[in-house]
Amino acid sequence: MVQAKLMKYFAIRLTLFLAAGALVASCSVNPYASTNRSYKKQVKAYTRALRTAPLQEVDTIAYPRGDQWVGTTNFSMRKPNYVIIHHTAQNSTEQTLKTFTTPRTSVSAHYVIGRDGKVYHMLHDYLRAWHAGAGRWGNATDLNSSSVGIELDNNGSEPFTDEMITSLIGVLAKLKKEHGIPAANFIGHSDIAPVRKVDPSPLFPWKKLADNGYGLWYDENVLDSVVVLNKPVLQDSTLNLEAFQVFKKVPVQGPVPEWFNPQEVLRIIGYDTRNMDAAIRAFKIHFVQQDVSPVLTEQDKAILYNLYKKYL
To answer: What's the rounded Cα separation, in Å, for the pair 21 and 26?
Structure first.
């Protein structure tokens, strides 16, 4: 009898010990338990606000209300129409996650993708993240309200890993299917903020994304019709001409019409052309990549004109 009671006592103690250990382990596994609670608290606050208005508006409103509240039956959640891709300009996924869970930074994104391909879905797609900042794409000037932000763990000077790009394409497939985002609306941070931003860097594989249906790309044969002449360039006019004359390929004619106006074409595609140098540089970061100077060569103009026809 005594032995049975002791066995029962130790069994209860062991159960309590294991339960306490599990609780401690669960807390130690997720270092973001505190910020996750904050997330849930904010979502609940927004939920309460949606339930209150317009059902229980305060009586101090300055206009006459109808005899009773009438709720429409025709509405839905607001969906994003753009995806904006960033690089983090930081050194690790952990550093970025800490940045996005620290209130004083006032920055965030919907998704963070690590170098190892792990995806952190930090905010519901229907909620507004603080990732785009001041920017413009076409007539859209509040991109935070109409876009999903994706941050790639990359310091801006290194290649993007295969694992990361594979995961990114998976996320983009989900977003395109769920929200019906047009292919042309998968863009970069530098596209919408050409004066301030250069991300994702010229190392980002935009063509690979476009080949999978996310973003546009120019036709590969468009550059075949650009005429290039060998033009002599004098290296030092004070020395022997023949000895110091080299030949450089210089584009002299491109397949663009006479009316072609780069500033107007960039504007139609979506770029903010109030600073033309910045707009050209952003265009070249995305579509040219080998050369990101704020000068359009004939090859650049051919690419730009080809894209213009695709964006129409």
So the answer is: 8
Q: Please indicate, yes or no, whether residues 179 and 272 belong to a single structural domain of this protein.
A: no
Catalytic one of 57, 94, 151, 242: 151
Token pair listed for 1: 């009898």
Distances from the Cα of 283 to the Cαs of 132, 133, 191, 213, 219, in angstroms? Answer: 17, 19, 7, 19, 16
Does 184 lie in the same domain as 95? yes
Alpha helices by DSSP H, listed for 30-87, are: 33-52
Residue 96 to residue 131: CA distance in whole angstroms:
12
Average pLDDT of 217-242? Answer: 59
- Residue 158 bears catalytic tag: no
Binned at pLDDT 50, 70 and 90, residue 250 comes out as: very low
- Is 295 within 8 Å of 280 (Cβ atoms)? yes
257: containing domain: 220-311
| C-beta separation of 143 from 150 below 8 A | no
| Token pair 């980002």 in the structure block, residue | 204
Report the Cα 23 to chain-centroid distance in Å.
Answer: 37
Tens-place pLDDT, residues 162-211: 999 999 999 999 999 999 999 999 999 999 999 999 999 999 999 999 99
Measured CA to CA, the distance from residue 172 to residue 206 in angstroms comes to: 13
Same domain, 126 and 175: yes
d(CA 173, CA 205): 16
